[in-house]
Amino acid sequence: MIKNDIALAIEKKTEFNGSKSLEIVEAVLEALKGALARQEKVEIRGFGSFKVVAKKTGYGRDIRRQKQIHITQGKRIKFRSGQELKHVSPKTQA
Fold first, then answer.
1. Which of 33, 25, 35, 27 is nearest to 4 (CA)?
2. How many CB atoms within 10 Å of residue 93?
3. pLDDT tens across 53-70, in order?
4. Which site from 20, 35, 39, 50 is most exposed, i.e. has the minimal number of CB atoms within 10 Å?
5. Distances in Å between the alpha carbon of 76 and those of 51, 56, 59, 79, 89?
């Protein structure tokens, strides 16, 4: 599913037209990106939560060159699904 598919789903369930639905999707995504950039936890009840976590330095393996490589410290976004999302079976999805 891509951004346009989400906008189309919004269009089908609401009275908004296609361009307005796409604006809504983009506004939501910008709000999520902004909150994560400020390292805030984003929680969507029934769906899940996103948070920024620190990534440790360490070593990995470059399988192409068969060499050990250094992985620098950084940050990543971690997603944890909510209980309602965990119990959704593929057959019940709309």
1. 25
2. 6
3. 999 999 989 999 999 999
4. 39
5. 8, 10, 17, 10, 28
Scanning 1-94, the segments in alpha helix (DSSP H) are 3-13, 18-37, 83-86
* Helix/strand/coil for 92: helix
- Rounded CA-CA distance 94/88 in Å is 11
| Token representation of residue 52 | 């920024």
| 88 CB-contact burial (10 Å; exposed 0-12 / middle 13-18 / buried 19+) | exposed
Domain ranges for the chain, please list them: 1-38, 42-94
CB atoms within 10 A of CB 20: 14
Which superfamily does 42-94 belong to? IHF-like DNA-binding proteins (4.10.520.10)
